[in-house]
Write a structure and sequence with these properties.
Keywords: ATP-binding, Cell membrane, Membrane, Nucleotide-binding, Translocase, Transport. With 286 residues, this protein is of the alpha/beta class. It is built from ten helices and ten strands. It is 41% helix and 23% strand. The radius of gyration is 21 Å and the shape is globular.
Length: 286
């Protein structure tokens, strides 16, 4: 599902003051691709995700999400259509648990969509297996699980509804590296299987570089740049300190690899190849 923002602006009201969140956003998110949103806290990433999901309406402009067009005056029925076709995984989504068991948490959205309980249970069980939740956990309280297991429950409850548009707001925030990688692997496999469109907000540049087909860089509610991961990190952010770059690019720069915006993504495998080739060149000279 393609998502297009046309001159979209939005703001929040706080103590009678209007606080701009997004200003004149023009952005296109191609169907079936993994799009990452980057930028400092308060740059508008979460607001953009909520607008794409239909949870908010823009103050100005238009959002085309599949067959649904959202504008400032759009009716509730249209917003419901947008919400039905998308799934938003909030940062620390497990804080929104309210059911007594993992199974009931997974069933909630499916039953709310009108699915019968037998089919819903089959779907929930299948999705629990997909994200790596053991069957014996289904009758446990979600509040008794580890942080990584809770995040898997939150993901499974969204993925079970098979959204055409998957919106991820810092999906690995607060997790240890092992749990974070497990979550990302589940998401990558799901996206590869379903070819859904992903909009993923993240502060982890390593995750962004690894996952993204397309990156949008937001600052102060405006689009600073958009393009492939290499175009953003090599061309637009090439002057950044090494520590702020994705690890593969940081290491490549340190060992003297020439970086260009149109080169294939740098991986640890290609870096090792580069080091070996240099060692062979040095050996041949001697």
């Amino acid at each position: 599902m393609e998502v297009v923002f046309k001159q979209v602006s939005d703001a929040y009201i706080e103590q009678a003051a209007v606080l701009p969140a997004l200003t004149s956003i023009d952005a296109a998110f191609a169907s079936g691709q993994w799009h990452c949103l980057i930028g400092a806290a308060g740059s508008g990433k979460s607001t953009l995700l909520q607008l794409a999901a239909g949870l908010r309406l823009p103050r100005q402009g238009q959002i085309q999400a599949g067959t649904v067009t959202l504008e400032p005056t759009s009716k509730k029925a249209l917003r419901r259509e947008a919400i039905k076709q998308s799934g938003l995984v909030y940062q620390f989504a497990e804080q929104q648990f309210f059911e007594e068991s993992v199974e009931r948490e997974l069933l909630f959205g499916l039953l709310n969509q009108g699915m019968n309980e037998i089919t819903a249970k089959e779907r929930a069980s299948q999705m629990a297996m997909t994200v790596g939740l053991k069957e014996e956990l289904l009758q446990r309280s979600p509040f008794s699980l580890s942080g990584g297991e809770q995040r898997k429950v939150a993901l499974a409850s969204i993925l079970a509804m098979r959204p055409s548009l998957l919106l991820l707001d810092e999906p690995t925030a607060g997790l240890d590296p092992v749990a974070a990688e497990q979550i990302l692997e589940v998401l990558r496999q799901y996206q590869a299987t379903t070819q859904c469109t992903v909009l993923h907000s993240s502060h982890d540049m390593g995750d962004v570089y690894h996952c993204a087909d397309h990156v949008v860089w937001l600052e102060a509610g405006k689009v600073q740049a958009s393009g492939t991961a290499n175009e953003i990190f090599v061309h637009h952010m090439g002057g950044m300190d090494n520590a702020l770059l994705p690890p593969p690019l940081s290491i490549a720069r340190q060992i003297g690899v020439k970086l260009t915006a149109d080169m294939p993504k740098v991986t640890m495998h290609t870096l090792l190849q580069s080091v070996r080739e240099r060692q062979l060149e040095v050996g041949e000279r001697h």
